[in-house]
Design a protein that fits this description.
This protein has 15 helices and five strands. The chain has about 325 residues and is of the alpha/beta class. It folds into three domains: about 20-155, P-loop containing nucleotide triphosphate hydrolases (Rossmann fold, 3-Layer(aba) Sandwich); about 160-220, Helicase, Ruva Protein, domain 3 (Orthogonal Bundle), CATH 1.10.8.60; about 225-320, Zinc Finger, Delta Prime, domain 3 (Up-down Bundle). It has a five-stranded parallel beta sheet. Helix 4 (about 80-95) links the parallel strand 2 and strand 3. It is elongated and about 75 Å long.
Amino acid sequence: MSELLWAEKYRPRSLSEVVNQKEIVERLKRFIAEKSIPHMLFAGPPGTGKTTIAHALAHDLYGENYRQYMLELNASDERKIEVIRTKVKEFARSRVVGEVPFKIVLLDEADNMTSDAQQALRRLMELYSASTRFILTANYPSKIIEPIQSRCAVFRFTSLKREDVVGRLMYICNQEKVVCREKALDIIYDISEGDMRRAINILQAAAALGEVTEDSVYKVVGLAHPREVREMLQLALAGNFVEARRKLRDLMINYGLSGVDIIKQIHREIFSSEVKLPDELRIIIADYAGEIQFRLVEGADDEIQLNAFLARLSLLGKKIKV
């Protein structure tokens, strides 16, 4: 197995290799054809290709040696005003010679920059726009001050589609000669929620155990198998509180799950197609789950709160006769 992280090894190097975010890619290709780009803000959930597409754009503009024309800073680490006034300013003020008359400054996770740093950046974007273009990436664009947003062309990234993620995972399995089940890849997509980086890392971790199966996926991500969570819910709703409580203890001990992990899985299963419940009952259980999750986050005891949740389900099941 490769020593590299697969998420890095199989990252697209050019815009032509990107298989998702097609509308964004088409817009960027037009900029490349014109050898001119505006300041840009890439906004969207993590793992949707923001940083990858910024690198692919630079590669297509400058060629294989694109890194000498590009300054990349992770703003979550280097987010203070001193960095903007020193590193960024020194890089931005010098001109380049060649077909492309500007350089690129990539500020990754720019939503973590301090307010003072953003104010300083705002001024640099005006002063050095002739010699430098800024690309900012952000998971939460609302944290970027309005003056910077108004200076940028905003590209909104969306979570990746199931077929794109599963197709890429299947391609990686073929390249790495990993045996995998299609159902396991579907589960990886559900767990990653459209985050390609997380999906690839889960696949690599599961492949280290051998064949990629449903059980191996749940094992490496530290989640209980949904079947066992459903069994616990069904026992509680059938009024069998003692057995449901025993099942809960097995989940917490065997999988080492916290109360918050379990309540999140319960919430997911409530709305699963595998669980047949009347809509009214789903609403009541979801309300219970939300209340318990709040108590757990506030520091209440995991086992006591989850036992209380199962007790309420048992009383509810007897009343409604599920």
